[in-house]
Backbone:
């Protein structure tokens, strides 16, 4: 089972304000396949504030469109080798047949 105890906020993995967790249950097996940190209101506020700062003050809004395209292509290159792994993850989280995940879900970012 996967366990994620931190939240990704403002470019860092941070300890959540709460000890609450969310069990991710596979609709196929009805087994808990992951446990993730549940954000509290303070965590959500922190994430929204970080996003606002990034939008207003960060480099991305001021980056040339051609540079943005290069960044997205780099991300696609990192995603590509893990397509099968991500298709399996989609299947376990959604209960979708693996054939669907392989054909539809894993190629989505490349569209």
Residues:
């Amino acid at each position: 089972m996967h366990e994620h105890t931190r939240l990704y906020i403002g470019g860092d993995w941070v300890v959540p304000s709460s000890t609450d967790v969310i069990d991710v249950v596979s609709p196929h097996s009805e087994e808990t396949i992951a446990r993730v940190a549940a954000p509290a209101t303070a965590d959500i506020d922190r994430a929204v504030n970080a996003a606002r700062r990034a939008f207003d003050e960060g480099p991305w809004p001021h980056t040339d469109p051609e540079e943005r395209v290069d960044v997205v292509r780099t991300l696609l290159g990192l995603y590509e080798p893990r397509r099968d792994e991500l298709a399996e993850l989609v299947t376990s989280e959604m209960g979708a047949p693996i054939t669907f995940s392989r054909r539809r879900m894993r190629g989505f970012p490349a569209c």
